[in-house]
Amino acid sequence: MDPKALTDTLSSPEIQAFASGFPVLVLHLVVTFGLLGIGAVVYALLTPWKEVDLIREGNSAAAVAFGGVLVGLAIPLAVSMSVSTSVRDIAIWGLATLILQLLAFRVVDIILTGLPQRIQEGEISAAVLLVAAKLATALILAAALTG
What we know:
Layout: H1 3-10, H2 13-46, H3 51-56, H4 60-83, H5 87-111, H6 115-120, H7 124-146
Helix pairs in contact: 2-4, 2-5, 4-5, 4-7, 5-7
């Protein structure tokens, strides 16, 4: 390739935008995935049952329920990342959404009494209902973020 053509290509606005934007993208992803990990750990500590242990034992209902929690936490975090303008913004709004989502999840667990026990017993229908309630909560919270 001609050195001038290479120089022109490397100095193009698209390449320059990528070069300056890619590190920011990676940083935003790291912060958001970190928040997701924190949210998942906190949720696991707050639940009356040990989903990870149940999943390791082959409990499909626990796997469905915990998978729903991960998606339910990720939805408002994704929206938070999309409406934020800086890492600090992502961290603040991400933390706020995690707190609100974990509180909402806890309320869902309380309202849908008996579901945790049914999930421990491997009842998929209970897990699906719990996931649906948590995803509905996540979508509403995500919409509120765009307010």
